[in-house]
């Protein structure tokens, strides 16, 4: 397939060809743990499925194409991919990280890798001076999400990549919220892109997976070593499900974005909502940067109620169309309260300092009719805060 094909075409065809023996259109699920060798050490491309599997190869090639990267590696979860990035570091190394990242990422950094003598500094990465001040001679990695989770901060990827490279550090971007349909960090100078395949790329809340994509052959070789050595690799069925999901990524994301834009504007005018976090709103402080580096503004938003922890919990518990659940990016709308759920592992004082209040609610806007979504939030808010 032509590498210049547009993403809608590459999502369906990149990395995938009809099976040469049977003509099967869909990538086969190669349910093998091991492979025949012609002579000891002489195999036909595969020897053991932790090291490589044909279904996984198709997925990795598809993901690399979507991100406009040369190399892709798939993992058994998004945390498996982030852990592999940490495997690239050594004792004594320092990481600069956005202060508003997925709680599981911060848990891995603080509660696992600090025990291995890595150090982490968390800063507001919308403030480039703060990032520059946080970088040390031993800084080896700058880690960011954009939009961030859950406050939807927009970080200038190109500027962060420049700061990282000036310090001889890697710049890694978790692109889960935006997806490669809306944002491609490698084109903006990042060295490495991470994804939770569980979210939009899978798209149907039925698979868990992760990925790392890069243009750097040496970096990919190191990632491949840890992928095989540690073994956090997905099975062929999981790879097949994600490949099924990427085929419809563009059409799903168009609807996610359309619904989120309308829902954000409605919430922004709601009398019981004190603040809406969505980069598609012109009032959002990162709106201009988002318009430059994203093709649309995504399907994730958060909003803040002037409410106690218990009152906000009542709101998220009383919806009928929105499902109270962690995760995001499926076709169905999900709602959650970060303080007691996805960010519960962060100490309350640190959480509130970062702006994660008790009244903050995060929404993954699905592809249902937006008027039904508005009505559902209206009845839940009115019922809990009447």
What do these coordinates show?
By secondary structure, this protein is of the alpha/beta class. It has two domains: 7-247, Aspartate Aminotransferase, domain 2 (3-Layer(aba) Sandwich), CATH 3.40.640.10; 249-385, Aspartate Aminotransferase, domain 1, CATH 3.90.1150.10. The protein has 14 helices and twelve strands. The protein has helices at residues 7-13, 54-66, 78-87, 103-112, 128-134, 157-166, 179-182, 217-230, 236-247, 249-268, 287-293, 309-317, 348-353, 370-385, and strands spanning 71-75, 94-98, 119-123, 139-145, 170-174, 192-196, 210-214, 273-277, 300-305, 323-324, 334-336, 360-364. A seven-stranded mixed β-sheet has the order 1-7-6-5-4-2-3, sandwiched between helices. A five-stranded mixed β-sheet has the order 8-9-12-11-10, with helices on one face. α1 (7-13) packs antiparallel against α2, α2 runs parallel beside α9 and α12 crosses α14.
């Amino acid at each position: 397939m032509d590498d210049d094909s547009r993403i809608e075409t590459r999502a369906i065809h990149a990395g995938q060809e009809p099976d040469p023996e049977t003509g099967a259109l869909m990538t086969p699920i190669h349910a093998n743990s091991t492979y025949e060798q012609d002579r000891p050490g002489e195999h036909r491309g595969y020897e053991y499925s932790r090291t490589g599997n044909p279904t996984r190869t198709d997925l990795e090639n598809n993901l690399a194409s979507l991100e406009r990267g040369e190399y892709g590696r798939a993992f058994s979860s998004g945390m498996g991919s982030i852990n592999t990035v940490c495997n690239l570091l050594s004792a004594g190394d320092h990481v600069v990280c956005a202060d508003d990242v997925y709680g599981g990422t911060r848990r891995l950094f603080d509660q696992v890798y600090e025990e291995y003598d890595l150090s982490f500094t968390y800063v507001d990465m919308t403030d480039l001076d703060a990032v520059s001040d946080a970088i040390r001679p031993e800084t080896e990695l700058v880690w960011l999400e954009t939009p961030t989770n859950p406050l939807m901060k927009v970080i200038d990827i190109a500027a962060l990549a420049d700061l990282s490279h000036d310090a001889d550090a890697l710049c890694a971007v978790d692109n889960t919220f935006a997806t490669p349909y809306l944002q491609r960090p490698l084109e903006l100078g990042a060295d490495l892109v991470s994804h939770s395949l569980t979210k939009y790329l899978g798209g149907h809340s039925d698979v868990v997976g992760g990925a790392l994509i890069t243009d750097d052959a040496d970096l990919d070789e190191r990632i491949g070593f840890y992928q095989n050595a540690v073994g956090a690799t997905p099975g062929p069925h999981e790879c097949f499900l994600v490949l099924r999901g990427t085929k419809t990524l563009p059409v799903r994301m168009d609807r996610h974005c359309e619904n989120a834009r309308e829902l954000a504007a409605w919430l922004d005018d709601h009398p019981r909502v004190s603040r809406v976090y969505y980069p598609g709103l012109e009032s959002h402080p990162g709106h201009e940067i988002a318009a430059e580096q994203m093709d649309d503004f995504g399907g994730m938003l958060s909003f803040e109620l002037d409410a106690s922890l218990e009152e906000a919990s009542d709101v998220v518990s009383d919806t009928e169309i929105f499902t109270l659940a962690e995760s995001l990016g499926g076709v169905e709308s999900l709602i959650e309260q970060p303080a007691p759920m996805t960010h519960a592992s962060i100490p309350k004082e640190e959480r509130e300092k970062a702006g994660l209040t008790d009244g903050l609610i995060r929404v993954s806007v699905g592809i249902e009719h937006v008027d039904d979504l508005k009505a559902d939030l209206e009845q839940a808010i009115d019922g809990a805060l009447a």
